[in-house]
Amino acid sequence: MANGVDERADQLNKNCEIEDAPSTFKAVVWQHFGFPVSRNDKGEKQTDKRQTICKSCRATVAYNSGNTSNMRSHLSHHHPEKLRTQQPTEEKA
Question: Keywords on this record (predicted)?
Answer without folding.
Answer: Metal-binding, Zinc, Zinc-finger
